Amino acid sequence: xxxxxxxxxxxxxxxxxxxxxxxxxxxxxxxxxxxxxxxxxxxxxxxxxxxxxx
Length: 54
Known about the structure:
mainly alpha
């Protein structure tokens, strides 16, 4: 994200709408990936908890 910020600052004056849209898409993809890993960790924790107590 830091690299994207630097690129955005550099190219802002030339193609600001396109760069803004790219950063928005990259942010959403990052959120999707992080959310997927978080859900996987939660499900594994619940599964382990059920095996230990069930």
